[in-house]
Amino acid sequence: MATERLTLRRFRASDAPRLAEYRSDPLVARYQSWDAPFPLDRAEVAVRNFAAGSPDEAGHFQYAVELTAERVLIGDVYVRLHDNLRQAEIGFTVDTPYQRRGFGVEAVSAVLDRLFRQQGLHRVMGECDARNTASAALLERLGFQREGRLRQQTFIKGEWTDDLLYGLLAPEWLGGEQKEPQPS
User: Fold this and answer.
1) Where are the chain's structural domains?
2) Lower Cβ count inside 10 Å, N or C end of the chain?
3) Which CATH superfamily hosts domain 6-174?
4) DSSP symbols for the chain
5) Which of 8-22, 91-105, 165-179 has the lowest mean pLDDT?
6) Would the keyword Transferase be found if you checked this record's keyword annotation (predicted)?
């Protein structure tokens, strides 16, 4: 998949060092399930697992997000396609130097377009740590509706955190009701 500035593709073995690098950034890891530093051997296993998935089958698939002009991996978009192939969960990570430049919106928008237009999904859900205002804003910018807050839902990195729940329906995305992606 390609956008104006990005290439979204399957992970390759050569991506492991860059994955380890940006996942080792404490700012990137802060609201994520992994700890920084993220060792290279762990990144190599992750990349192998990411590459083995299929975006069209139930289960997990991770898109590598590459800045096309520089041919550098700047993040990833996670999709967990449900067994019914009509619903999915989405998540995203963008390396710190590339944040607040619209790359996250651009990448997630491309994946949503694929999920709704090509794969015919009915609903996509997103969830984020309630303190992660940037992720919440990105979801809202793309038209996701906040559907709830789960108080002290996740125990992560030694503390209980609240989770925000978001949902986006096919008619909202396909019907032109989605908000036009804006650079952040």
Assistant:
1) 6-174
2) C
3) Gcn5-related N-acetyltransferase (GNAT) (3.40.630.30)
4) -B-SSEEEE---GGGHHHHHHHHT-HHHHTTSSSPSS--HHHHHHHHHHHHH--TTSSEEEEEEEEETTTTEEEEEEEEEE-TTSSEEEEEEEE-GGGTTTTHHHHHHHHHHHIIIIIS--SEEEEEEETT-HHHHHHHHHTTPEEEEEEEEEEEETTEEEEEEEEEEEHHHHHTT-SPPP---
5) 165-179
6) yes
